[in-house]
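Course assignment 3, question 2. Fill in each field.
Student: A.L.
Task: Predict the tertiary structure for the chain below.
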Amino acid sequence: MTLLRLLLASAFAAGASASSIGAPVSPTAEPRAAIPWRTWEEAKRISDGSNDRPIYAYLGSELSELSRETEQQTFARAETAAWLAGNFLCVRISEVADPQIAAFVQDLVERVRQQKGPPYHVWLTPRFEPYDAAGYLPPAEEWSQPGFLKTARAALDVWRERPDAATAAARELRALAPPEPPSTRLPSVATLLERGTDAWLAAEDRTHGGFGEAPKEHHAEVIRFLLHRGPGGRQAALRAADALVRGALQDPADGGFYRRTIDEAWREPYRQKRLIDQARIAVALLEADEVANRPDWRQAAHRALRFGLTQLGRPEGGFLAALDTTDGAAPTGRVGVASLATQGVFLGALIRAGEPFQAEAETLARHLRASIQPARNGPSEPGAAPEERSAADLLGAAFGLSLSRDPGDQRLAQELARTALAQYHDARSGLFWAVSAEGAASLPWRPLALPSPIRAESLALAIGVDSGPRQQLRRALRHTIEFDPLPPAEILIALTRDAESAP
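Answer field:
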């Protein structure tokens, strides 16, 4: 057991302490209270060496029901809010306003702590050294999982009673942060593709179509991968494509595809429709139609793209991230702004769909060209800081533009890929950083770019880069899936296409 876990186990066993609070009460029995949130930069100005309070940082997501539960139940309790305000400097991080800080928090919780998905909780020393972190924490203990208050109280006790140990735990986390270089010996691409094929075929739901158990994901990239993996793979992919169209994953009213279904039989949708899923599913259905000659699948793909254009398009250009009608969602249902990476992938789907979407593809390409200019040209005004685009943003936009027939778009795509490699690529590990070296100056460490949901490394291989970086990317992806029982199909596709295009 690590040093930090021993400390927290000790704190849990000690029970209530001077920093503890009473048992949580029903959120309906007390008025809603506001936590005095600070931004990361505001907290840094306050924590100038004289502050002795530890930092509590929170990152939620507009598309996460667990984030909404945390905010509407845990944070809404007056007693909880008062206790947090009295014991921590509380920092709320925004994915939109603080993308670099958000990337660091996500990297810490998902990659270092091995806990997936928002919300994210991080506890830091007054010097902004993270010494504990967690993913979702329920309002109270359930199924042997500690609740938010118990975890936060233990983190506070560690800092108050054993600050040297908290600092040591922070050093331990920092030691886990650097990415590992790939192994010297890796399975061949052919071996990994065979393993991936066998793994996904074993995961097929032969009764209802698709892959895995409930909740049922669309696995669009698995369909695309298996279409070209022999007769068995092709038939599994076609059965999965048919399931996507036959079941409740697609809304018959507007043609948009939901993110997933709650059940195995594709009957009860999870009522979120993300722009990225419209693009991914549309491409899978278009490729499946080419194999099976199913005009109904092609029509379903077109309807998904039309949904994205009409329901998620913004009058000022670009797109919203999703239409969310789950319980507790915003009244309008329209959530967030789609990242440039997502919009680039959507552009690729429009181009892939051909002539019916030519005008819309040209409009989106113009928007991407205009949006990416600050990242290429630097400040537009004297003294203004250039807006930093992530590796995924640059490569996602490059991916979409690389599929254009316009030579200028193709040249721009290569320029963006070179910029991403120069600013974000780590030659030692072959992976991409989430932020540039300059952007990471105020962070405890430089975070890696995590899938969202497409990996930057996969996008770079799909675009086509020079042989040196290409070999590094290939090794990094092979290393990533070497021991993965169900390797991400977008990596399998990237390795397949890379092998096919290799001289």
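Instructor remarks: The chain is about 50% helix and 10% strand. The beta strands are 55-59, 89-93, 120-124, 130-134, 216-217, 260-261, 269-270, 272-274, 320-324, 334-337.
Grade: pending
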